[in-house]
Design goal:
alpha+beta; 5-stranded mixed beta sheet
Amino acid sequence: SSPKHLQDRASAFFGVLAKDANGRQLLKEQNHRIEFDLTDTDPFRVQIKNGRIETTADVNGPRKYDVNDLIHFQLSEGTLARLFDGKIRFTDALIRIQQDGSDAMLLLECTLFKWSVLSWVGRLFRGAQLRIGGQA
């Protein structure tokens, strides 16, 4: 599938959080750029800033690793789809089950690494999954 399709899914997925007060509060808690480096299709990013969500194709030249609001994951399109579908939890995705790790979400980088940032991303995924009715 096209990266645009995944961007749209990400937009809709995280967008459900904007539909109620608790979700909006969660989105406003932190400003971060979450980069999804997909192993089998083009990468894209989700920017959450001041409670607003924007997804963009990640086609911008060489990566700058000095930004202090970047969280960077590498995963397959299938793993991301399972997250969006609520079939697995964010915490499950961080654990490799397959020998080659193809089912896992690797945290490549989290600038000024803080558990609170990773925990916030986990809460975004969980909050969206619960609102969409995901069963994981």
